[in-house]
Design a protein that fits this description.
This protein is α+β, with helices and mostly antiparallel strands. 31% of the residues lie in helices and 15% in strands. A hairpin with a 5-residue loop joins strand 2 (62-69) and strand 3. Belongs to the protein kinase superfamily. STE Ser/Thr protein kinase family. MAP kinase kinase subfamily.
Length: 312
């Protein structure tokens, strides 16, 4: 058993340029039936219906609030993106709108409404996850991490089955509530694979969690496969959650794009410290295969003993 007593999560965003091929969704879609019904029931038709209670966080181009519906008292998270934000952020907003309109899964954060404003701002009314992100949750045991992992895998299985690659799996994009339900969030750099051979080679997301073939596809699998890239990011996330810090960095080391790329491409994948079980080590090894062709798929990982042994 391991207890994480201190968590160190440096700023690892280090964004890379967005690709022109990802600029906007190809066509609008309605919200999924469950989300549309919830929005209608809650009456979240305008921002005036929502009372801001607390600022949850600030990001590039917007702010996230905890809000309460004035009539029903339901609690939501309100993600408000400013209309005058950077064009790259604006493209991410359009992309996230497209993805959220397609998704309806208990393992993906639910979008109850999307409210374009006359000012040019865009408001997302989202499911409120009251425990924040996995960056702030202590992991008391392998069994707890196994249950977390299984939920994330179910979320990725849903997304991948709908031809959606997330491209930015990391602890801060995995939300959790007081019931320890874990859900995937933040689809600003995700991509819908509309065709079997649709390219997925743009450098978007958080480079610290990118797989080796994202930087050098010829050496590590022949091409960049977004589905396999999500699995690498998951493996790296699990190691980080277990050891309490980003595994490619030592204490006090400042991250930069070039050094991280070299460690990912030319160094050995991170390993778990003494005390981790053989099942956990093997699971992480299946995720962190540097050659993407050897990496397990999400559905294969769901049958791995690390996540299938304890389904309580």
């Amino acid at each position: 058993m391991a207890v994480v007593r201190q968590r160190r999560h440096p700023d690892l965003k280090l964004p890379l340029p967005d690709a022109a091929s990802d600029r906007r969704p190809r066509f609008p879609l309605p919200l999924p039936p469950a989300a549309a019904a919830a929005a209608a029931a809650g009456g979240t038709a305008t921002l005036a219906d929502l009372e801001k209670l607390q600022v949850l966080g600030h990001g590039s181009g917007g702010t996230v609030y905890k809000v309460r519906h004035r009539r029903t008292s339901a609690i939501y998270a309100l993600k408000l993106i400013h209309g005058d934000c950077d064009p790259t952020v604006r493209r991410q907003v359009l992309r996230e709108m497209d993805i959220l309109r397609r998704t309806d899964s208990p393992f993906v954060v639910k979008c109850h409404a999307i409210l374009p404003q006359a000012s040019g701002d865009t408001a997302f009314v989202l499911e409120f996850m009251d425990a924040g992100t996995l960056t702030s949750i202590p992991i008391p045991s392998e069994s707890a991490l196994s249950r977390i992992t299984r939920q994330v895998l179910h979320g990725l299985s849903y997304l991948h089955s709908h031809k959606i690659v997330h491209r930015d799996i990391k602890p801060s994009n995995l939300l959790v509530n007081s019931r320890m339900e874990v859900k995937i969030a933040d689809f600003g750099v995700s991509k819908v694979m509309c065709r079997t051979l649709d390219p997925c080679d743009s450098y978007v997301g958080t480079c610290a969690y990118m797989s080796p073939e994202r930087f050098d596809p010829d050496r590590y699998g022949g091409r960049y496969d977004g589905y396999a890239g999500d699995v690498w990011s998951l493996g790296l996330t699990l190691v980080e959650l277990w050891v309490g810090h980003f595994p490619y960095l030592v204490d006090g080391e400042r991250p930069d794009w070039a050094s991280l790329m070299c460690k990912i491409c030319f160094g050995d994948p991170p390993s778990l410290p003494d005390g981790a079980s053989d099942d956990f080590r093997d699971f992480v090894g299946c995720c962190l295969q540097k050659d993407s062709k050897n990496r397990w798929t999400v559905d294969q990982l769901l049958a791995h003993p690390f996540v299938s042994r304890d389904r309580r």
